[in-house]
Amino acid sequence: MEEERLKSILASLLFAAGEPVSIARLAAVFDDMPRATVQKALAEMASQYAAENRGIVIDEVAGGYQMRTPKDHAGYVRKLLAARPPRLSRPLMETVAIIAYRQPITRPEIEQLRGVDTGGVLETLLEKRLVKIAGRKEAPGRPMVYETTPEFLELFGLKDIESLPDLSEFREIERAVEQANTGPVEGIETHPEDSAETAEPSPHEADASEAPADTAPATPDDNDNENENSH
Questions:
Q1: Which residues pair with 67 in a beta bridge?
Q2: For 3-68, CATH number?
Q3: Which end of the chain is more exposed for a tag (fewer CB within 10 A), N or C?
Q4: Number of C-alpha atoms within 13 angstroms, CB side, residue 172?
Q5: How confident is the model at residue 83 (pLDDT cuts 50, 70, 90)?
Q6: Which pLDDT score, from 0 to 100, does residue 179 have?
Q7: DSSP conformation class of 88
Q8: CB under 8 Å to 139, separation ≥6 — which residues?
Q9: What percent of the chain stands above pLDDT 90?
Q10: Residues 155 and 180 sit within 8 Å (Cβ to Cβ)
């Protein structure tokens, strides 16, 4: 297959999917085409789109490739769609941050770090598909353990969990999300890059003892509000 023909088809596939698509899934569409060929074409497309300042970029996100709007176009996209992203209040952000940096982690361990009950918060995160139940811990009572999901990676524009920013950068993301909650912004389906644009992903090297110290506990009032929102 001609290179330009391949790129044209890949653009159609990414546009139609509307979500991150893995190299394996893309390569499976073609007969006997090596994954390396598909990956090379996608890399060239991403560079070309960026160099030509197009209205669409191709990013590697959540273990796949996805067409997304450029970050500097976010304001115009907001005005067109007038949609809100999943509401990520401070209790939600604190809890998902703990899970992201300490996963797999149990509810009692989360509550020990936050100092408040997290039942309602976890329920909301599960409903938003930002976290998932990933089995049970080999401990008394066999409590369930929680991990983040591909939707979490997509929301924050992360290639994989190893691309998590350090904790100080994550605080900047918290502030950006809180500001976004005050006005209409695009939802997950429209790729809200602006919620994570304050931090470039970097390899996470914080040790396990760093997360609880840097994650400020929510107040009981915050948690009560979140419990109400989850029902």
A1: 58
A2: 1.10.10.10
A3: C
A4: 13
A5: low
A6: 60
A7: -
A8: 106
A9: 17
A10: no
